[in-house]
């Protein structure tokens, strides 16, 4: 039971790509040792991505994804190919299955180029190797490991598994939440309203994680409610390096924090930690160019929070109309719906994504980027339309030229 409790977002996603009849499903089944995917001699049996959770030792829990053939013909076919390409945005490790008899074709080369552009670790499974001699593949970029396999005889399957485990061991997240902004002994004041989100007796996770990172930086955290901030600043006797606040209290905290003290919010620290800050700041600036009738997509990550719904469907559109002075057309989606086709939109405004894992948010950002559509989030939009975003981004050198 334990393994199936590992949330999908925490698992490493391994996707199998290749032309129809290259034997993707057979290789996948050989790797997993279980019949997960339909296998038949008819070309193009897999018409939709097949997703399966399993344990792959020594890597641990993984999600295996079998995709439609990348050489599918016809109208339906091109839809399926598009789906395969979108799966790339959810992929941590890619397996390109090539039929040794047919050799490496233009579709394989095109897909490989996409995989390398996205920086996804990849291995080529040279399948049906019992039938012919494999070759070495030299690509322009870093050489890609090739493993000769035969789903029929089991040849090379163990080696392929070891290769997947090696590629799947992700390097530890280099990013810090706040520690890289601090020196040992610095004071950081955290403003935490405790009336709303936190269960009694607890802090919410982002607050805990921030405190932990401050401790690791050998710095000092002082935690106050928004009503106690002014008094705390007066008593500290030393200027804090940074004040970090919950976004909902930003207005009051900004008023109580002297201009010469850097101020930011938890949501901005976490957008930076997850690699979303820069694209979302670029995205929010598009509000300055919105024209009458432009379409704005508002995405709610969860379906059950009425309060977020209210922000997404009522308050945000109102603030955007007030800020831009025009009336854009708003389209709303919630939960797991995220449209494949984004080209009609001028801007996407997404919720903070607390109910979506980091991979799903990265996927959505990547899909938007692939189609050239700017994306931002609720917190940034609120801060920008209320004129407080600039101040909250001051601690981050790397954003100077965008602002």
UniProtKB/TrEMBL annotation:
Family matches, as InterPro entries: FeFe-hyd_GTPase_HydF, GTP-bd, HydF_dimer, HydF_tetramer, P-loop_NTPase, Small_GTP-bd
Keywords: GTP-binding, Nucleotide-binding
GO annotation terms (biological process): tRNA methylation; tRNA wobble uridine modification
GO cellular component, one term: cytoplasm
Highest taxon in the source lineage: Bacteria
Membrane-spanning intervals of the chain: none
Any GO molecular function: GTP binding
The Hydrogen maturase F dimerization domain, residue ranges: 177-275
Pfam families listed in its UniProt record: HydF_dimer, HydF_tetramer, MMR_HSR1
Domain G: 14-128
SUPFAM superfamilies the UniProt entry points to: P-loop containing nucleoside triphosphate hydrolases (SSF52540)
Hydrogen maturase F tetramerization domain location: 280-395
Designated name of the protein: [FeFe] hydrogenase H-cluster maturation GTPase HydF
Organism this protein belongs to: Candidatus Enterocloster excrementipullorum
Gene name, Swiss-Prot/TrEMBL: hydF
């Amino acid at each position: 039971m334990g393994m199936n409790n590992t949330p999908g977002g925490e698992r490493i996603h391994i996707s199998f790509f290749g032309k129809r009849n290259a034997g993707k499903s057979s290789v996948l089944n050989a790797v997993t040792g279980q019949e997960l995917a339909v296998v038949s001699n008819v070309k193009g049996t897999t018409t939709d991505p097949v997703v399966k959770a399993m344990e792959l030792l020594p890597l641990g829990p993984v999600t295996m994804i079998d995709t439609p053939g990348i050489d599918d013909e016809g109208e339906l076919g091109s839809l399926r190919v598009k789906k395969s390409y979108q799966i790339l945005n959810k992929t941590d490790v890619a397996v390109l299955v090539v039929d040794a008899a047919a050799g490496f074709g233009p579709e394989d080369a095109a897909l490989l180029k996409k995989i390398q552009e996205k920086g996804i670790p990849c291995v080529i499974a040279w399948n049906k190797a019992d039938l012919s001699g494999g070759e070495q593949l030299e690509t322009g970029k870093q050489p890609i490991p090739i493993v000769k396999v035969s789903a029929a005889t089991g040849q090379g399957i163990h080696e392929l598994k070891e290769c997947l485990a090696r590629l799947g061991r992700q390097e530890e997240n280099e990013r810090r939440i706040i520690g890289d902004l601090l020196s040992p002994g610095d004071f950081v004041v955290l403003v935490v309203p405790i009336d709303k989100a936190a269960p009694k007796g607890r802090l919410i996770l982002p607050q805990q994680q921030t405190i932990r990172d401050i401790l690791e930086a050998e710095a000092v955290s002082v935690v106050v409610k928004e009503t106690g901030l002014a008094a705390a600043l007066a008593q500290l006797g030393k200027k804090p390096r940074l004040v970090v606040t919950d976004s909902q209290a930003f207005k009051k905290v900004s008023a109580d924090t002297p201009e010469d003290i850097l101020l930011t919010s938890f949501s901005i620290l976490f957008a930076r930690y997850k690699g979303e800050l820069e694209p979302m700041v670029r995205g929010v600036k598009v509000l300055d160019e919105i024209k009458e009738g432009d379409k704005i997509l508002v995405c709610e990550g969860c379906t059950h929070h009425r309060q977020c719904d209210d922000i997404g469907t009522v308050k945000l559109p109102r603030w955007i109309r007030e800020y831009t002075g025009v009336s854009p057309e708003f389209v709303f989606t919630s939960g797991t719906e995220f449209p494949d086709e984004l080209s009609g939109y001028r801007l996407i405004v997404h919720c903070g994504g607390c109910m979506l894992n980091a991979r799903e948010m990265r996927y959505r950002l990547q899909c938007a980027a692939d189609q050239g559509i700017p994306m931002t989030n609720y917190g940034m939009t609120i801060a920008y339309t209320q004129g407080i975003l600039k101040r909250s981004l001051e601690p981050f050198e790397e954003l100077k030229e965008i602002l």
